[in-house]
């Protein structure tokens, strides 16, 4: 497990929150096109889980992927430029919100197809074993993916083939606008993994340290035993499924019930209590993060659009690569 300071992990959560807030504003102003799914409320999951990986490990996720890239240390300016569809974006403006891909950090993209990342994760893990490597794969997916055939096929093959994957279920209690209770006969979603003979664990997704501890155990087991593990992380998104979601499927009071569990002020209180930082320190950090995000917006606005010829670039992989 990487030894990352708690203050640094808190800053990563804060950066995700402020980045997402500005992304939401830019989308509403028409600066960002296509779809945009925000990670507000779920920051402790991505930051806590990814903090226990090694640099050589691989990460795959769904379309709510901004948080993974920021947690891994991708350049936030390039990420904002990607949202704007600019040539300076992480994927040269061709991926957009749902398809962040950072090969240097082994982030193999967000996936716009529900559950679509899971078979790909199995393929990556199979390649690792085929080559005799020691890396692991961490695959994030939402509760909506549990009813997809790709989930069951991947879980079964991962166990049969003994693949080094840590499956992280981000249970934010809604599949788009549908509550889990309406589509799942058993509300204990982790029990889905029992049928596939793999190690199972759970974590409070609103608690950074709890996520880090549970995912740390899972990664350690998978790395040592070369077998898959399944972690259910119960979390909550404070915003709609996408930026344009009117959220008519839930009452405002439902969101407010989760506010006291917000992972960012929760972690801030712990840092102050343990003497890691003062309230003034955290306020300065917040101001610095906001300034950093503003610089990202300026960079994106000032960056050039892709040239028309770029449509024909990066279509095929170069020979030998």
Plain-language structure description:
The strands form two sheets. A five-stranded parallel beta sheet has the order 1-2-3-7-6, with helices on both faces. A two-stranded antiparallel ribbon has the order 4-5. It has helices spanning 6-28, 43-50, 66-72, 76-83, 117-131, 149-160, 180-183, 208-225, 252-258, 263-273, 279-302; strands at 58-60, 137-142, 165-171, 174-175, 178-179, 199-204, 229-234. The protein has one domain: Rossmann fold, CATH 3.40.50.970. It has 321 residues and is α/β, with parallel strands linked by helices. The chain is built from eleven helices and seven strands. The chain is globular.
| Biggest sheet character | 5 strands, parallel
Indicate the low-confidence ranges by residue numbers.
none
Mean pLDDT: 94
CATH superfamily: Thiamin diphosphate (ThDP)-binding fold, Pyr/PP domains
Query: Can you give the helix content as a percent range?
Result: 40-55%
End-to-end gap: 30 Å
If helices are DSSP runs of H or I spanning 4 or more residues, what is the number of helices?
11
